[in-house]
Specification:
By secondary structure, this protein is mainly β. It has helices at about 1-10, 150-155, 160, 225-230, 465-475; strands spanning about 40-45, 55-60, 65-70, 75, 85-90, 95-105, 110, 120-130, 140-145, 150, 165-170, 175-180, 180-190, 195-200, 200-205, 210-220, 245-255, 260-265, 270, 275-280, 285-295, 300-310, 315-320, 325-330, 345-350, 370, 375, 385-405, 410-420, 425-430, 440-450, 475-484. A hairpin with a 2-residue loop joins β21 and β22. The chain is globular. The two termini are about 35 Å apart.
């Protein structure tokens, strides 16, 4: 049974979005960026308040004298000597460090995110609207998770999709550990004997307080068929097409104390429409997953998913809404079930359905090479015709081992440092001595592209570009990672 539920990881694990240059270069004197220079930037937090403890480094020479400190308004005054495009690193105590490549003195605002601790807060409760019928051969379930931003698709963490925290349920006298964010209404099924399947609550773990947008998905699968396929060691991604998604619910929970108790619906949106998608030609050693997602504000909630072989055609469940997106994912078959840096390697497309049903993907990348803890070499793929590269985003996370109450040890990623550039690159050199050398880290990098706009003769790469909107504008993404 735990294998059966684990196969649901694949369903949602990725719901969870050109010229190669070694170093950033000034693009030309005709750029609008050079007409809108400023003499300072303001460093703010996610609520818009100034961060008075912020500091900024221009270039990569990390010494105390080279850091420029913010004033009481959170403003960092640029030195008059800064005139050319360079690398900026902005840091503050208790916040993620951010490095921005290819920057001119036109940048005006930088937003920093809070560093998050290990998750210790909880939202728990039950799910309504999941109907069952005893001994019908079908298992009815609901999966509860936090809604995802597009940036979460790139920096996805399996622990945010299927919880590493487990609770035991008793099935025919055996204790079966299930992820805490699974909800199983009481139901009886026959498997040699009558078994009762029941898990009447869920738990989500969070690292910070605030309002959390929560998604619930109601689905079902054929009990004996899935058990048989798992026993036959069928790859988990091949089981996806046995799962039928029926409805979903979206709501919010206010987490203002260590534990919040709520009840969530799973039948607000009935999946009574379909969207048709045709897979491109896919190499035999790769897997494609196609998802239909509903976008609300800036977050994405899954509706349906299917496993595709080369040139397959499938219908995905849908709802009556214009704001639905196709999310396609390609991965190597032999990396699908791994829990290491190769888990991160993927190619994605995120596009509205009114474009086309036959999507093309950027090639998969090799993992970056790391030299010490300050230099990374990457080999970006060739871009596709009709696309332009819009830069890259990367993150360094510390890998912390956490021992759960069950005794199980899991690795948790805690983001420490983000990197953004409006151009692709083959080499990244970081300021030295900003990372404790004794810790374990993962470096993830995503190269971003979007449909080219050939109507514009000038590439306004520094005026209308911002690292906050960079991922949101991407339609094609390829990603890889390395541990160090």
């Amino acid at each position: 049974m735990s294998k059966l539920i684990y196969s649901a990881i694949v369903i949602l694990i990725l719901i969870t979005a050109c010229e190669k240059k070694n170093v950033p270069e000034k693009k030309g004197d005709d750029k609008v960026a050079w007409l809108q220079q400023t003499d300072r930037l303001v460093v703010i937090n996610e609520t818009g308040s100034p961060i008075t403890t912020a500091q900024m480094l221009i270039g990569n020479k990390n010494s105390e004298n080279n850091w420029i400190h913010a004033n009481e308004q959170g403003e960092i005054i640029f030195p008059s000597s800064w005139k050319d495009i360079d690398t900026l690193t902005i840091s503050a105590p208790e916040y993620l460090t951010v490095t921005l490549f290819n920057q001119s003195p036109s940048i005006q605002t930088v937003k920093l995110k809070k560093l998050l601790p290990l998750p210790q807060l909880k939202v728990e409760g039950d799910v309504s609207g999941v109907s069952t019928k005893d001994k019908d051969g079908i298992v009815d379930f609901s999966l509860v998770m936090q809604s995802f931003l597009k940036n979460d698709i790139l920096q996805f963490d399996v622990n945010k999709i299927i919880s590493p925290w487990t609770e035991n349920i008793s099935v025919a006298g055996f204790d079966i550990p299930l992820p805490q964010n699974i909800f199983l209404p009481s139901q009886k099924e026959s498997y040699f004997i009558t078994v009762v399947l029941e898990k009447l609550n869920f738990t989500l773990n969070f690292a910070d307080f605030g309002v959390k947008k929560i998604s619930t998905i109601r689905g079902r699968f054929p009990f004996k068929k899935i058990i048989s396929e798992v026993q036959n060691k069928k790859p988990y991604y091949e089981l996806i097409n046995y799962f039928e998604m029926l409805s979903s619910g979206n709501t919010s929970a206010s987490l203002d104390q260590n534990t919040a108790k709520v009840s969530f619906p799973a039948n607000q949106l009935l999946f009574d429409q379909v969207k048709t998608v045709v897979a491109p030609a896919i190499p035999l050693d790769q897997v494609m997953l196609g998802l239909n997602c509903l976008k609300s504000d800036m977050s994405y909630s899954p509706i349906d998913i299917k496993y595709f072989k080369s040139k397959d055609t499938f219908n995905l469940k849908a709802v009556k809404s214009e704001n639905q997106y196709f999310v396609g994912v390609i991965k190597n078959k032999n990396e699908f079930d791994l829990i290491n840096e190769n888990t991160e390697r993927m190619s994605l497309v995120v596009l509205p359905w009114d474009t086309t049903t036959n999507y093309q993907f950027l090639p998969l990348m090799n993992n970056p090479q790391v030299f010490g803890k300050t230099e990374f070499h990457i080999n970006p793929p060739n871009n596709l015709d009709g696309l332009k590269n819009i830069g890259f985003t990367a993150v360094i996370s510390e890998i912390k081992s956490l021992t759960l109450e069950s005794g199980k040890k899991v690795d948790i990623k805690l983001a420490k440092w983000e990197f953004h550039s409006p151009q692709w690159a083959t080499k990244i050199i970081l300021p030295d001595s900003l990372l404790p050398r004794e810790n374990r880290y993962r470096f993830e990098i995503s190269f971003l592209s979007q449909k080219a706009d050939n109507s514009r003769k000038v590439d306004f790469f520094s005026v209308d570009w911002s690292h906050e909107s960079q991922v949101e504008n991407a339609t094609h993404i390829t990603k890889s990672a390395v541990n160090f």
